[in-house]
Amino acid sequence: MKKSTLSLYALIALACGSLTSAAQTTQRLTATKANDYALVYTLPVTRLTVTLEAEMTVKKPGEFYKYAKKYLDIDNPITQESHSARLKSATVTTQGVPDPDERYAVQFKSGTAPYMLLGSNGVPLAINTDKTMKTVAPELPEPQAAKPTPLETSAARQVVSEEMAQSQSTAKRAELAAAALFAIRQTRSDLITGQAEQTPPDGKSLQLMLDNLEAQEQALMAMFVGTTSTRTDVASFSITPDDNISDMVVARISPLDGIIDAGDLSGEPVYLNLKVTQEGELPLNEKGERLPFPKNGLAYCIPGSALVSVTYRGDIFFENNEEMAQFGVVYGLAPNSFTDKKSPIYVIFNPATGAIDSQGPAM
């Protein structure tokens, strides 16, 4: 697309003098005599950000797993340490980033003062209005550290009696641990039924005692059945595609290291697929002919769209049709529509695609 014949570099230098902050993340650029009544901006290319949430699980055997059947009649205790991982969720968001090949300058009539609102990256947000496109950011997951296992709590130290600590026999320690477990269960039962010789003075004290007994019981049980620890990792990866994508490895998931880079072959791949579903098209006149770009027009994008999906182990975790600037075309609005004395207009742009989100009479 032919761009303005004005010198972009010169206009950028002039424009710097008329940039004022409109908000923390936006800038307001006004067409004034100082910049030859010109606005300089860059249309975006659409970037995809893939956010992955992975769950890592570690299982460890308890010290007395060999005696789980004998003392507790448990048939399936954890017998060896294992690490596993799975993809829990995938989210794809779109953002507009400046396209260095799509820089434009639009010049207005002298004596007018249209203004453009730019994002912090120079991408146009609106013209002749301080309003911007309303967007709702998706709720993204947050990483979660593994909670302490029953054997990592203070209760685990409380249940180890002096006799257990001094015994050199694993079988004897297991026998003592089982006896302590049954004693805790009996004490709890007596407290609940009111048959204990000494009862707490109030309900709060009773609950505290019951909670402590529960923690001790879990610690003793873990010595026989083992422990399971789970943490959640979250990582994001950005891609700016320029064509269809087939089974691109965007990241991998490792049982030991969590979410890792695509090049690390120690993990299972997470695939990104993209298929262009519609290409942007220039508007047509009444004869079905493509309209030419308006002279000195204000460029915007008519985006295309693509079906984006994220898969893992053959399952689809994300799939959506996304509008994308790079699969569209650039068209323009006549600059005099923004400076008409009777009915100037405003336009709000989609910052992710450079498309027109809404427009109307300027206030």
Q: How would you describe the overall organization of this protein?
A:
- The structure is a single chain.
- By secondary structure, the chain is an alpha+beta fold.
- It has a domain at 61-85 and 146-230.
- Helix content is 19%, strand content 41%.
- The protein is built from 6 helices and 14 strands.
- The chain has a 6-stranded antiparallel beta sheet with strand order 1-2-5-6-13-14, with no helix packed on it. Strands 9-8-10-11-12 form a 5-stranded antiparallel beta sheet, with no helix packed on it. A 3-stranded antiparallel beta sheet has the order 4-3-7.
- Helix 5 packs antiparallel against helix 6.
- The two termini are 32 Å apart.
- The model is unreliable at 1-24 (pLDDT under 50).
List the helices and strands and how they pair.
Blueprint: H1 8-15, E1 19-23, E2 26-30, E3 38-60, H2 68-72, E4 82-107, E5 115-119, E6 124-127, H3 154-158, H4 162-166, H5 170-193, H6 203-225, E7 227-239, E8 245-254, E9 258-260, E10 268-278, E11 298-312, E12 315-333, E13 345-349, E14 356-361
Antiparallel strand pairs: 1-2, 2-5, 3-4, 3-7, 5-6, 6-13, 8-9, 8-10, 10-11, 11-12, 13-14
Helix pairs in contact: 5-6
Low-confidence stretches: 1-24
Beta-strand content estimate: 35-45%
Tell me, what's the shape?
elongated
Q: What portion of residues is helical?
A: 10-25%
| Sequence of secondary-structure elements | HEEEHEEEHHHHEEEEEEEE
What structural class do you assign from the helix and strand content? alpha+beta
| Terminal CA distance | 32 Å
Biggest pleated sheet: 6 strands, antiparallel
Average pLDDT, all residues: 89
Number of helices: 6
Main β-sheet, spatial strand arrangement: 1-2-5-6-13-14
Our Rg estimate from Cα atoms comes to 33 Å
